[in-house]
Amino acid sequence: MEYEPVIGLEVHAQLLTESKMFCSCHANYAGAAPNTHVCPVCLGMPGVLPSINKKAVEYTVMTALALNCAIPEFSKFDRKNYPYPDLMKGYQISQYDMPFSHDGWVQVEGEDGQASRVGITRVHLEEDTAKLLHVTDENGQNYSLVDVNRGGVPLMEIVSAPDIRTPQEARFYLIKLRAILQALGVSTGNMEEGSFRCDANVSIRPKGREEFGTKTEVKNMNSFRAVQRALEYEIKRQAEVLNGGGRIVQETRGWVEDRGITVSQRSKEYAHDYRYFPEPDLPPMVLTREWVDGLRDRLPELPDARRDRFVSEYGLRLEDAALMTNSRATADFFEGTVKLFSQPRAVSNWMQSELFRLLKDGEGDVAETKVTPEMLAELLSLMDKGTINARTGKEVFEEMFTTGARAAEIVKEKGLAQISDTAHLEVVVADVLKNNPQAVADYRSGKGNALAFLMGQVMKLTRGQANPGVVNKLLRDRLG
């Protein structure tokens, strides 16, 4: 039987606030010693009272506005009860039936340029959990340690509608969502660091049927590629179960990256299992129209608008502009380079062909590279002036990427400047023609690819430094 996947994604994004969600502890815990960013509130001690982080509420509503959500006037926080050890007080302060927003949408473009609209069910706010570290000591005893530094950090949850139909579309949705959060400045969107986390709900149904199948939730995916691979595996697994006469059980499954499989973790809880009720220590919130409109006016240029501007202002093709705006860092890098080297298409082409190639699987962040816009502009200028050719430029760029050295320094130190001296190259061309009589005969008999072979021989003898234009002319003149 042929099946259709039905996918919905739950994204949790840590917000870039200075303090935690309900206390004054510093939210930037990266690299800190365990349990040093803690206080009685985030440790869940008896008798303490939480207070709401206003900036986190602003960031959540700004995100909801950017995702075309409706913002209700009244909202509240709720207690979500569950007995996991990463929540010391036995419950999480979250939102249930009155979130900050609902019913939005985002447009997602695929590789083929076709756009689809994915619904946003809600954007709400909660606190992050502590972190568990599972340890085996020298005696083989297993135990767990708890680091509460992360506990209580503002965590925004963005829940999509079950509108996604392919693993690739899920990946593009996440890329678009991260770009929006980065443009707003509300989250780093870094999946590897855990500040941008995704859980996927996936089911399959026979093609043409409206009713949804039983879904599973997949966790532990720390890259866009991992999300796509996990969904591909889970869709295939569910189809094999159904085709074999089995049934799908609603459960939570974990993605095992090195094995490329999902494994069962626990049965899936339902909403009533959490025993939600209004948080008694926090007042309901009123979001006035004036306050919401003020946040709307503060929204920056969003990825779709920036993409369209790159097309109109820089003359990029739509698909190239989309790649240049798939993250804030990439867009800033592109514009920073264009300000210094005013050939936008050349900058875009180089970033796609060389920079993205060196960033792992196209998922590495441009902000992580040692190359700056100033450095890339200098390299492109050297090639544009003919100081080095494109082949040498690629070699130089790889060293720039690895070491952070500037292009001019590498060219000077390694003697990589392009050879354009006609007298020097005439000697090399003559030698190549003399030593390759068969290629010469092939060219003169009409075999055009023989010229490319002879060009390659010249480039080999000059270590790739010969000016291709000069060599091409010399060869054609000599061959007649």
List the helices and strands and how they pair.
Layout (H helix, E strand, L loop, with lengths): L2 E12 L39 H13 L7 E2 L2 E4 L9 E4 L9 E6 L5 E13 L3 E6 L5 E6 L6 E7 L6 H18 L11 E11 L9 E6 L2 H20 L7 E6 L4 E7 L9 E2 L6 E2 L2 H9 L5 H12 L3 H7 L3 H13 L3 H15 L14 H12 L5 H14 L3 H8 L7 H14 L1 H8 L4 H13 L6 H12 L1
Parallel strand pairs: 11-12
Antiparallel strand pairs: 1-9, 1-10, 2-15, 3-4, 3-14, 5-6, 6-9, 7-8, 10-11, 12-13
Helix pairs in contact: 2-3, 5-6, 7-8, 7-9, 9-10, 12-14, 12-15, 13-14, 14-15
Keywords, separated by commas or semicolons:
3 domains, alpha+beta, 480 residues, elongated, 8-stranded mixed β-sheet, 39% helix
Quick synopsis:
The chain has 480 residues and is α+β, with helices and mostly antiparallel strands. Helix content is 39%, strand content 20%. It has an 8-stranded mixed sheet with strand order 5-6-9-1-10-11-12-13. Strands 4-3-14 form a 3-stranded antiparallel sheet, with no helix packed on it. The protein has a two-stranded antiparallel sheet with strand order 2-15.
Explain the overall architecture.
The protein is an alpha+beta fold. The protein folds into 3 domains: 3-294, no CATH class; 301-414, no CATH class; 422-479, Orthogonal Bundle (Arc Repressor Mutant, subunit A), CATH 1.10.10.410. It has 15 helices and 15 strands. It has helices spanning 54-66, 167-184, 224-243, 289-297, 303-314, 318-324, 328-340, 344-358, 373-384, 390-403, 407-414, 422-435, 437-444, 449-461, 468-479, and strands at residues 3-14, 74-75, 78-81, 91-94, 104-109, 115-127, 131-136, 142-147, 154-160, 196-206, 216-221, 251-256, 261-267, 277-278, 285-286. The strands form 4 sheets. It has an 8-stranded mixed sheet. The radius of gyration is 28 Å and the shape is elongated. The termini are far apart. 37% of the residues are buried. The mean pLDDT is 93.
